[in-house]
Amino acid sequence: MPPIIDCVAVTKRYANGQLALDSVDLSIERGEIFALLGPNGAGKTTLIGAICGTVSMTSGTVSVAGTDVVRDFRAARARIGLVPQEIALDIFASVRTTVAFSRGLFGRPADPAYIERLLRDLSLWEKRDARIVELSGGMKRRVMIAKALAHEPDVLFLDEPTAGVDVNLRRDMWALVRRLRSEGATVILTTHYIDEAEEMADRVGVIDKGRVLLVEDKAALMRKLGKRRLTLVLHDPLSALPESLAGWPIALDEGGRRLVYAFDASADDTGVPTLLRRLAEAGVAFADLETTASSLEDIFVDLVGAGS
Fold first, then answer.
1. Gap between the Cα atoms of 247 and 254, Å rounded
2. What tens digit of pLDDT does each residue of 121-152 get?
3. 205 and 251 belong to one structural domain
4. How many angstroms separate the CA atoms of 147 and 101, rounded?
5. What's the whole-model pTM score?
6. Which distant-in-sequence residues (6+ apart) come within 8 Å of 50 by Cβ?
7. Whole-number pLDDT of residue 163
8. Is 301 domain-assigned?
9. Is the separation of the CB atoms in 21 and 7 below 8 Å?
């Protein structure tokens, strides 16, 4: 089955010479949750704009469900729901009117039952007749999501959707995302909360300086690039590492009270037995130890740091 979104050599250079997107190739499969990660200014929002047809490309092509976003903008855009970072609403309209109007903009017939279900899913039903101006910031964000879903799109873009919103909205949103995916929708999100991407995404893409550094299945990425960390709680603090461990990937933490060793758990020789033996030979005793796996955030920081 062909990808629902296919970007080929997408480049965006602004008039001042700034290269925002540098020949980006990206395919997104139907029915997946795809997380696009990158630091501020990496090109995430520009790439979303190019896919949605709101940012003109300098070169390259983008198709959505087989429809070219430039040659047939209306048909391609009708397949997409977009929740941008900025809140843009008619502050004097009611919640229900706002969402129903958005559905009509895409030529969809009125469906009060669907609008009710959507508002209930986003905990907006009790506020259905309230004017936007009367809502809190979190409630306005919920309305933005409802607007994006009003025309029942095949693809939903969430650009930093939970930045600065309350815990309840984050919980409701991710429950809705899971339900949409179960119904066959494709969800692409950018987020500063990398723990959300780690929990929600099927695949992860990392972009920096307008270039896609990698696209990988999340589980495979964490197996391939993830490391484990062994932490030893020492009986007595150390001011320096024993000479026998010079050159090892070891750091002293908490004023020398903890020794932290990073290693590749998939390697034939992790080095852990040798480390423990050399510590014993040096007379370094420890009271406790624990191992932890690196998170998606650790991998992201390493990748972006390597690309800078």
1. 20
2. 888 999 999 999 999 888 898 899 999 999 99
3. no
4. 9
5. 0.74
6. 7, 10, 12, 21, 56, 57, 60, 62, 69
7. 67
8. no
9. no
How far is residue 132's CA from residue 90's CA, in Å, rounded to a whole number? 7
- Give residue for tokens 């197996």: 223
Residue 307 has pLDDT above 60, yes or no: no
* 253: exposed, middle or buried (Cβ count in 10 Å: 0-12, 13-18, 19+): exposed
Contact between 69 and 99 under an 8 Å Cβ cutoff? The reply is: no
Report helix, strand or coil for 201.
Answer: coil
What CATH number does the domain containing 20 carry?
3.40.50.300
In the chain, the number of structural domains is 2
Q: Is the dihedral of CA 36, 40, 44, 45 positive or negative?
A: positive
Instruction: Read off the amino acid at residue 187.
Output: V
Q: How far apart are CA 17 and CA 15, in angstroms?
A: 5
Say yes or no: 203 and 289 in one domain: no
Amino acid occupying residue 109: P
Strands 186-190, 211-217: pairing kind:
unpaired
